[in-house]
Amino acid sequence: IILIGIIFVPMFNVLNFSSGIIFLIFLGLFCGAIFPDTDCKESRIFKMKQDKRKIGWQSSYKEYKSKKDAQNMYNAFLSFYSSILIILGNVFRYLLYYPSYFVVFLMNKKWVKEGSVQDEHRGISHTLLGVFIASIFFFILLFFGNLYFKITSLNLLIIPTLSFFIASNFHLLQDSISK
Which of 30, 48, 79, 136 has the greatest number of CB atoms lying within 10 Å of its CB? Predict the structure, then answer.
């Protein structure tokens, strides 16, 4: 997502996008990039991340202290970032993944075993149909959030929804070329 930002931010300046539209684009990109992994509780987004590497011998205590402080700051960032991922992952799991799983079940009962929600990686959320249905639920989630918080006009809600769909498909593409 950071690479996409580095590549596209100059383009946003040329097209005179407001900071609000840029925020909506990156909101959709971030959420769409993590959504497909909400299908499995053992996924990496549901785990706290910490840097537990040993610093090792240093030539002075001052150098050791400097590296230890940098590691502690990095761990504080990782803890904050992991907390956001865990919260968003659970929200997406219950508000996007399970409802999309249910819709796919209603559409064709042969694709999904009756009465079971698969908690294995690369299930319904790793299909184009699952991502499409989740994008619709993401739009509905944004719609109701916007009704309550009145953040933006309703016609701009399509921007994070489209970027959610695109980022989820990029996630599927990346998963298709990895194990």
Answer: 30
Euclidean distance between CA atoms 99 and 2, whole angstroms: 30
Question: How far is residue 101's CA from residue 10's CA, in Å, rounded to a whole number?
Answer: 38
Other C-beta atoms within 10 Å of 26: how many?
19
Question: Would you put residue 131 in left (φ > 0), alpha (ψ -120 to 50) or beta?
Answer: alpha
User: What is the residue type of 170?
Assistant: F
How many residues in total does the chain contain? 179
| pLDDT at residue number 137 | 96
Would you state the torsion angle of the CA atoms of residues 124, 126, 127, 132, taken in this order, to the nearest 10 degrees? 90
